[in-house]
Design a protein that fits this description.
Blueprint (H helix, E strand, L loop, with lengths): L2 H13 L9 H15 L3 H16 L5 H9 L6 H10 L27 H8 L7 H20 L37 H22 L11 H13 L3 H10 L40 E3 L8 H16 L3 H4 L5 H4 L12 H11 L5 H6 L8 H9 L8 H4 E2 L7 E9 L2 E14 L6 E9 L3 E10 L2
Antiparallel strand pairs: 1-3, 2-4, 3-4, 4-5, 5-6
Helix pairs in contact: 1-4, 2-3, 2-8, 3-7, 4-5, 6-7, 6-8, 7-8, 8-9, 14-16
Length: about 450
């Protein structure tokens, strides 16, 4: 592996360490803690379990989105890493490598791949293992069980990723480019309630096998279910916050591992006004990692820095378009139903990332599958306020973004054209990886050729 490629992969692991693959922190962290307390765990133990359940999406176990990239995207093929993604996020017994249709995810309502890890933890007794470690491992094991509902069906394959290794949100739940699979109100019955019921059942069973860890008697599921339904229906950040704050038995202040967890979910801040739009497939870009070690030229780095400054710091998608090739930028989205010229669509694409309320962006299509009126709304919504790139975006390297060299293929053959990728993450929507593809035209110079993003 070349030094450049190796650094790229390491940067993705760090860059995406806070990204989420399925149910967001309101479920994996918030609801799991609440369910654990209802099942009979103490508040302190429930916090450890919830922290463990969130860990696979936070990079503390097997970094989820970054692992997908490392295993299956931009020319990579790593069976071992892909298998970990399958085990912890897309549970099935399907072959890797293998067609997505062979790796269908079935909810863990019955004993299957989704319940394998948690059943192991329930049946395991390690008297010398520290209590906190036992609880944390229980949380880890609950993660794939919970994800089996949000990821049910055939995995969709993100742009630039190999279909026999990669995973993404199923098309039936919004597709890999949207957050719809993560949102409980879209799947409140039966998915969210059934998922919570199965999680609760496993927590109760764990305490039956480990009675020394019981703090109090379990609340009957009938009483728990009523509250879960209300939780599932909450469609905005403010509604979710109201639900958590109404649960006096589990004080909101007790969520100490991630006290800002509701600020980072992809729901609108307040009232919902537009229905979520179904995701669609996107044509694959033909880029692969460079196979040789070449440093990024300073003028390419400077060009990207100027573009990002005009776009993000000065908050001017219109001026940023002067650095881009709009016709090329919209090519991956040609099958989307959005109207308008390439310049209008590219401008909307840039404008949506500046909207502070990313949950509303998702409601408006999270991309270009909207009409002209909807696209224009991106420009009218409140924008992020930043004074520097470092305040707005972050990466795994020393700077606010990481750059790496790519090779571009034509008819399966590499072309000797200078192409680079710039990878970063917006601080206000940390569940999305954003990648700029930058190419040098021999006559026109550098241009932004693609703006791609993944939410997995």
């Amino acid at each position: 592996m070349s030094k450049v490629r190796g650094l790229f992969l390491l940067s993705l692991v760090s860059l995406l360490s806070t990204s989420l693959l399925a149910w967001e922190m309101d479920v994996h962290y918030g609801l799991t803690k609440w369910l654990a307390f209802q099942a009979g765990f103490s508040l302190a133990d429930a916090e450890v379990i919830a922290r463990g359940a969130e860990a696979p999406d936070e990079g503390k176990l097997f970094p989820a989105p970054s692992a997908v990239f490392k295993a299956a995207c931009l020319g990579n093929r790593d069976r071992d890493i892909s298998a970990l993604v399958q085990e912890y996020h897309f549970p099935s017994y399907g072959p890797i490598p293998g067609a997505p249709s062979k790796r269908m995810v079935v909810p863990g309502a019955k004993e299957n791949a989704a319940t394998a890890l948690v059943e192991t933890q329930i049946q395991t007794s390690l008297p010398t293992q520290p209590r906190e470690r036992t609880l944390e491992l229980l949380g880890f094991a609950l993660h794939p069980l919970e994800d089996s509902w949000s990821h049910q069906g055939e995995p969709a394959i993100p742009t630039t990723c190999a279909e026999d290794y990669a995973f993404g949100h199923p098309v039936s739940r919004g597709g890999w480019r949207k957050h719809d699979a993560d949102l409980t109100y879209l799947h409140q019955v039966p998915d969210t309630v059934e998922m919570a019921g199965r999680t609760y059942e496993k927590l109760v069973k764990f305490l039956a096998n480990h009675p020394a860890m019981r703090d109090h008697a379990a609340v009957p599921w009938s009483g728990v279910e009523v509250q879960v339904r209300l939780f599932a229906k909450a469609a905005t950040k403010s509604e979710k916050a109201a639900w958590f704050k109404s649960q006096k038995s589990v004080p909101f202040a007790s969520y100490t591992s991630y006290p800002r967890f509701l600020e980072l979910i992809d729901l609108p801040d307040s009232s919902r006004t537009t229905a979520a739009v179904t995701g669609r497939g996107v044509a694959a870009a033909k880029y692969v990692p460079a196979s040789e070690d070449r440093s990024v030229p300073s003028d390419a780095n400077g060009f990207v820095g100027q573009f990002l400054t005009e776009w993000i710091v000065k908050r001017s998608p219109e001026r940023a378009l002067a650095f881009a090739n709009p016709d090329e930028m919209v090519k991956p989205f040609e099958k989307e139903p959005g109207s308008g010229s390439s310049a209008e669509r590219a401008k909307a694409m840039l404008a949506m990332w500046l909207v502070q309320d990313h949950g509303t962006v998702n409601l408006l299509g999270h991309g270009l599958d909207s009409d002209r009126k909807t696209m224009s709304r991106f420009e009218s919504l409140p924008k992020i306020e930043v004074e520097s790139l470092r305040a707005a975006i972050t990466s795994g390297g020393e700077g606010p973004y990481e750059m790496f060299r790519l090779l571009r293929r034509s008819n399966g053959q590499p072309q000797d054209i200078e192409v680079y990728g710039a990878v970063f993450q917006f601080r206000h929507c940390p569940r999305d990886a954003v990648v700029l593809i930058v190419a040098r035209d021999p006559k026109k110079g550098w241009a932004i050729e693609r703006l791609l993003w993944w939410n997995l």
